[in-house]
Design a protein that fits this description.
- The chain has helices at about 95-100, 110-115, and strands at about 15-20, 30-40, 45-55, 55-65, 70-75, 80-85, 85-90, 125, 135-140, 145-150, 150-155, 160, 165-170, 170-185.
- The chain is mainly beta and about 200 residues long.
- The strands form two sheets. Strands 1, 2, 3, 4, 5, 6, 7, 8, 9, 10, 13 and 14 form a twelve-stranded antiparallel sheet that branches. Strands 11-12 form a two-stranded antiparallel sheet.
- Strand 9 (about 135-140) and strand 10 (about 145-150) form a beta hairpin.
- The longest helix has 8 residues, at about 95-100.
Length: about 200
């Protein structure tokens, strides 16, 4: 079992530890490492992807193959900070910050569920024989997002997608999950905490 929470996390006040879950939806928090490829008429690139997702915080980092930071996005309870090209931008909504500063829209609100195959009844979904999503369409935006699940893998005691392809108009995103770890928050008694 591999735990990689210490790599980029700024959540020193929490005690997140690896756990096993029966379904991805049972994870109270998670982190992943993988790859993101973006293709649009304006640009085409591939990066390493690190994402820590908790009930109150998201920390997303894109790096080059050599580890150089391309983009860092942090969001905590109504405060968002985006660092890109050596500049920092702050606001109350990470999606708005990202949309203002990039040529493509990354579906931050929906992606934590889509990336794990957690699908609400609001989408048009086709499923495999095990009931896992093969493809879904989100028609709440135009043009709609179309997500294809191109393989599944065991991680943290459950099955999660291995590769997703997201298309919207002439934008294409590919997300490959290399490692996904479910996390749980362990409370440390006050008398055991360092001051």
């Amino acid at each position: 079992m591999s735990v990689f929470i210490s790599g980029c996390s700024s959540l020193a006040d929490n005690n997140w530890v690896a756990t096993q879950v029966s379904t991805p939806a049972a994870a109270s928090a998670w982190e992943l490492q993988g790859k993101l490829a973006v293709k649009s008429p304006q640009e085409s690139f591939s990066t390493n992807l690190y994402w820590l997702h908790t009930p109150v915080n998201d920390e997303l980092k894109l790096t080059t193959m050599l580890g150089t930071s391309v983009l860092t996005l942090s969001n905590r309870e109504g405060y968002a900070k985006l660092e890109v090209d050596g500049h920092s931008y702050e606001g109350d909504d990470p999606q708005t910050l990202l949309n203002q500063l990039s040529n493509w829209q990354f579906p931050l609100t929906q992606l934590p569920q889509w990336i794990l195959g957690i699908i609400s009844d609001d989408y048009h979904v086709s499923r495999d024989i095990k009931g896992r999503p093969l493809q879904l369409t989100d028609t709440s935006v135009m043009p709609p997002w179309r997500i294809q699940y191109q393989g599944w893998q065991p991680q943290s005691g459950t099955m999660v997608p291995r590769l997703l392809r997201l298309d919207r108009g002439n934008l294409q995103l590919k997300i490959q999950l290399n490692q996904w770890q479910a996390l749980t928050n362990v409370q440390v008694p006050m008398d055991n905490q360092r001051l």
